[in-house]
Amino acid sequence: MRNVPLLSRVGADRADELRTDVDAAVAGWSDALLLKVDQRNQVLISGGRVVLGRAAKHSATPDEHAVFLGRLPNGVHVWAVRGALEAPEDPHAETEVLDLRRAGLVFDDTSSQLVATATALLNWHESARFSAVDGSPTKSSKAGWARVDPVTGREEFPRMDPAVICLIHDGHDRAVLARQTVWPERLFSLIAGFVEAGESFESCVVREVAEEIGLSVTDVTYLGSQPWPFPRSLMVGFHAIGDPEQEFVFSDGEIAEAGWFSRSEVREALNEGDWSSDSTSRLLLPGSISIAREIIESWAFAD
């Protein structure tokens, strides 16, 4: 890929050592900054950056629902909580409310990392309040990076569901793009699917492509990955080679149509914008926040 996917950017130190040294993490609360994420996973942004308030203004110490996101380059700690968004202290600051899908393109590296991490962690806590083993209530621990059964001491950690996403090409000038049955006409992207138990990423690519469009692919090559906290996926990107002479077969019902597109066709569609544009192009492609867009662009504009 030509660029790091937008949600894979790094701008802060995750400072994982402070998750086990909670006293040190809490000691930084008085000078820490706080990211608030509302119930719709929206945040307040200003000038391409997420708005961070003062943690001490929220509470004297971090409550049980606060999650530790890491340290900024200047050493200041950053935490996140679920709550109503508040205007910044500067009354002249121009702000808007956006979620990660819509704001990812305008965020700087630090904001992208902080919001992606906060969204994933806060969503996980809300769905993991009870043990998956025996249904016992659990409590947040390790500065929000684990939940523990207070009776048995059993710990549970944030879940991520790995999924593959693959651009299939003919080794030359054509690539496969497909449209899911639930998408509007003209909206196309790459083949993707979740990794099954006991399966490697590469094996998953071969299986998913065969199941969704009936092609047999070879030369599966890893490209890169991106967290996708909607709600808790990790997208792992690949290239693979397919045969344009092989017929498409849509056996699992997820794909409505697929086709081989030339580099020039894909470039034209990319230049028209993305799915949200008013383009009349016969081909509309994913937005810039997705790893799919980066994979497609990297292939389309390869030397």
TrEMBL record:
Cited PROSITE patterns: NUDIX (PS51462), NUDIX_BOX (PS00893)
Domain Nudix hydrolase as annotated: residue spans: 158-283
InterPro entries named in the record: NAD-cap_RNA_hydrolase_NudC (IPR050241), NADH_PPase-like_N (IPR015375), NudC-like_C (IPR049734), NUDIX_hydrolase-like_dom_sf (IPR015797), NUDIX_hydrolase_CS (IPR020084), NUDIX_hydrolase_dom (IPR000086)
The keyword Magnesium is assigned to this record: yes
Gene Ontology CC annotations of this record: cytosol
Cross-referenced Gene3D superfamilies: 3.90.79.20, Nucleoside Triphosphate Pyrophosphohydrolase
EC number: 3.6.1.22
Recorded catalytic activity of this chain's protein: a 5'-end NAD(+)-phospho-ribonucleoside in mRNA + H2O = a 5'-end phospho-adenosine-phospho-ribonucleoside in mRNA + beta-nicotinamide D-ribonucleotide + 2 H(+)
Any one GO BP annotation for this protein: NADP+ catabolic process
Cofactor(s) needed by this chain: Zn(2+); Mg(2+)
GO molecular function, one term: metal ion binding
Superkingdom of origin: Bacteria
Record keywords, A-Z: Hydrolase, Magnesium, Manganese, Metal-binding, NAD
Family of the protein in this entry: Belongs to the Nudix hydrolase family. NudC subfamily.
UniProt-recorded name of the protein: NAD(+) diphosphatase
